[in-house]
């Protein structure tokens, strides 16, 4: 890939500057977008400033090395960054049969300078590479769609939307932390892990508020800076909430024993009333002295 692209200086003042992963995604889309007027990939028309790619392939494009280990971002992490770019008016998306069509939106109406110093051979070479990449994307996109349709048939319809849960937990954490939008890969994984738990979203958010309030009381009104703290505390609350339902069964046993005792008292009362009505007296047992026998 040759040539260069224009980038606005105001980027360093935008909210995405505090989110390195989102910034990397924007750079990837800007560098990979089509530069000629348009081309067709099967039935999908890809125009200048657009890029056709599936989320699984984006995960491969955005992989990185941390502490000597290869890290591949999850699909949910990429979707969160895509949503941020859409929110700030930098891109738009359109779902197609063979992948997601990303469109770059710039204030000056252009994302790449046509006079970028490339030779005709380099231009043709880049176009052939782009065409081959999009062709491969078609095949990959069809396979992904088939896999997703199979997964959709196997997933029960009552399961909550994972993406929505991740977004709500993320927004709550950023609001409580109140110090920027950056999330480390470790924090993103922790958020996804909590969002996957079978707990009502209102309950999770309420627990987060209580954890934050308790932390502030102990630490001089400071906020929790990392979501990993929330992760440990929330996992403890989830565990405790699932072990709590033992109480109703013991309460039910206590109620049953009480009812049985009350029934016995009622029976003894009726027996006493019957004896009084019949004029009979209860004979007290007499115990003679052992020495008189």
Q: What's the gist of this structure?
A:
With 293 residues, this protein is mainly alpha-helical.
Describe the 3D structure:
The protein has 2 domains: about 150 residues, no CATH class; about 80 residues. The protein is mostly helical. The longest helix is centred in the middle third of the chain and has 35 residues. It is built from 9 helices and 7 strands, in the order H-E-E-E-H-E-E-H-E-E-H-H-H-H-H-H. Helix 1 packs across helix 3 and helix 6 runs parallel beside helix 8. A hairpin with a 2-residue loop joins strand 1 and strand 2.
Features:
2 domains, single chain, mainly alpha, 293 residues, 7 strands
Q: Helix- and strand-based class?
A: mainly alpha
| Overall pLDDT | 77
The gyration radius over C-alpha positions equals 34 Å
Give, in spatial order, the strands making up the sheet with the most strands.
3-7-6
Question: What string gives the helices and strands in order?
Answer: HEEEHEEHEEHHHHHH
Principal-axes geometry comes out as elongated
Q: How many DSSP H or I helices?
A: 9
Helix content bin:
55-70%
The number of domains is 2
What is the straight-line distance between the termini?
119 Å
Q: How big a fraction of the residues is strand?
A: 5-15%
Uncertain residue segments: 109-119, 153-159
């Amino acid at each position: 890939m040759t040539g260069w692209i224009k980038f606005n200086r105001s980027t360093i003042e935008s909210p995405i500057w505090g989110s390195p992963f989102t910034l990397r995604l924007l750079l990837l889309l800007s560098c990979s977008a089509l530069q000629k007027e348009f081309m067709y990939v099967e039935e999908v028309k890809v125009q200048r400033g657009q890029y056709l790619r599936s989320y699984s392939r984006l995960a491969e494009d955005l992989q990185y090395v941390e502490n000597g280990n290869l890290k591949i971002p999850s699909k949910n992490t990429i979707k969160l960054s895509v949503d941020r770019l859409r929110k700030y008016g930098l891109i738009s998306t359109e779902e197609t049969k063979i992948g997601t069509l990303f469109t770059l939106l710039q204030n000056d109406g252009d994302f790449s300078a046509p006079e970028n110093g490339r030779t005709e051979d380099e231009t043709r070479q880049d176009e052939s590479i782009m065409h081959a990449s999009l062709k491969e994307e078609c095949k990959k996109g069809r396979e992904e769609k088939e896999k997703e349709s199979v997964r959709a048939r196997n997933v029960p319809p009552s399961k909550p939307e994972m993406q929505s849960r991740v977004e709500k937990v993320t927004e709550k954490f950023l609001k409580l932390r109140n110090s920027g939008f950056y999330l480390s890969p470790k924090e993103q994984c922790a958020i996804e892990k909590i969002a996957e738990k079978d707990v009502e979203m209102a309950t999770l958010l309420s627990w987060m508020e209580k954890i934050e309030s308790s932390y502030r009381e102990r630490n001089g009104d400071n906020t929790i800076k990392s979501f990993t703290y929330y992760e440990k505390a929330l996992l403890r609350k989830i565990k405790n909430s699932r072990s709590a339902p033992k109480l109703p069964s013991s309460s039910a046993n206590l109620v049953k024993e009480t009812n049985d005792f009350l029934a016995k008292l009622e029976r003894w009362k009726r027996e006493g009333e019957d004896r009084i009505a019949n004029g009979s007296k209860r004979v007290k047992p007499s115990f003679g002295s052992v020495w008189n026998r």
